[in-house]
């Protein structure tokens, strides 16, 4: 993609910032080239190039993407190539691909996701990347929650939080509070979940990180709804929807509509609830 003096350095470094959506049009226009470059790197056995391609533009897929199956196939093929790193860059490329691959896998196969994330953790530790290691620990915890073990998920998120605070990873801190909220929600402690999601949302907003703030507000709406605080839940959902509108996010749209339908029904607006459903 062409760069200008005012453009972000890359879609990867612009992730979860206000300029992230600016990459959607140029990358969308270049999807054919991205696919061809990835296919070429795979065919040439260029493991580092394929790994960097597969993981580097991953954040873009919240705006526009090939099918999830295609994206997963790219990652799996890149990770399967013979790999002999010659630099920190090469190790970090594989570590990121393992982390991203695990993130994409954990909703459907949390055990396999955890195995892949642990590979990324080892690699991040080998190069002294504390923020990367903390992210792997945190997201291993996310997969633990999905696998039905929220106690382990909470413990791992708490460990990751300490590590992120120690290395000054402010975005990582905000995501750790988000996972702590998810663990509390899975344990049925909706008040604690709301507190963590609110902290996550506040941190993301202070960092001007709209994607994280959108996720945190949507989850806050869910937790508040389970607390029976329908007015506060509605406000959280509205905040999340403003982020979606302003930044063209599409994630969690159906979940938010479902939550709003439940609120409408709880307030006795059954026709509105039916339309939202």
Describe, in plain words, how this protein is organized in 3D.
With 277 residues, this protein is mainly α. Helix content is 73%, strand content 0%. The chain is built from 14 helices and no strands. The chain is globular and about 60 Å long.
Please compute the radius of gyration using only Cα atoms: 19 Å
Percentage of residues in DSSP E strands = under 5%
Helix content: over 70%
Query: Structural class from helices and strands?
Result: mainly alpha
How far apart are the termini?
A: 40 Å
State the helix count.
14
Number of DSSP strands?
Answer: 0
Shape, per Cα inertia axes? globular
Mean pLDDT: 88
Sheet having the most strands: none
Order of helices and strands: HHHHHHHHHHHHHH
List low-pLDDT spans.
1-8
């Amino acid at each position: 993609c062409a760069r200008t003096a005012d453009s972000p350095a890359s879609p990867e470094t612009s992730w979860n910032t206000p300029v992230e959506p600016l990459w959607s049009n140029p990358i969308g226009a270049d999807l054919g080239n991205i696919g061809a470059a990835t296919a070429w790197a795979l065919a040439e056995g260029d493991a580092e190039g394929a790994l960097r391609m597969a993981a580097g533009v991953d954040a873009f897929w919240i705006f526009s993407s090939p099918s999830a199956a295609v994206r997963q196939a790219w990652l799996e093929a890149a990770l399967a190539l013979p790999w002999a790193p010659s630099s920190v860059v090469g190790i970090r490329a594989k570590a990121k691909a393992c982390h991203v691959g695990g993130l994409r896998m954990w909703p459907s196969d949390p055990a396999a996701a955890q195995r892949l994330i642990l590979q990324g953790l080892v690699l991040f530790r080998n190069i002294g990347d504390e923020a990367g290691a903390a992210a792997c620990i945190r997201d291993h915890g996310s997969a633990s929650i999905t696998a039905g073990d929220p106690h382990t998920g909470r413990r791992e998120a708490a460990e990751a939080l300490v590590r992120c605070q120690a290395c000054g990873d402010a975005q990582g801190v905000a995501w750790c509070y988000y996972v702590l909220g998810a663990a509390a929600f899975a344990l049925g402690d909706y008040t604690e979940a709301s507190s963590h999601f609110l902290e996550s949302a506040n941190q993301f907003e202070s960092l001007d990180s709209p994607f994280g703030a959108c996720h945190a507000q949507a989850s806050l709406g869910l937790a508040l709804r389970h607390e029976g605080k329908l007015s506060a839940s509605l406000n959280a959902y509205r905040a999340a929807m403003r982020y979606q509108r302003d930044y063209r996010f599409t994630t969690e749209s159906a979940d938010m509509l479902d939550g709003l339908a439940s609120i409408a029904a709880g307030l006795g607006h059954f026709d509105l609830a039916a339309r939202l459903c």
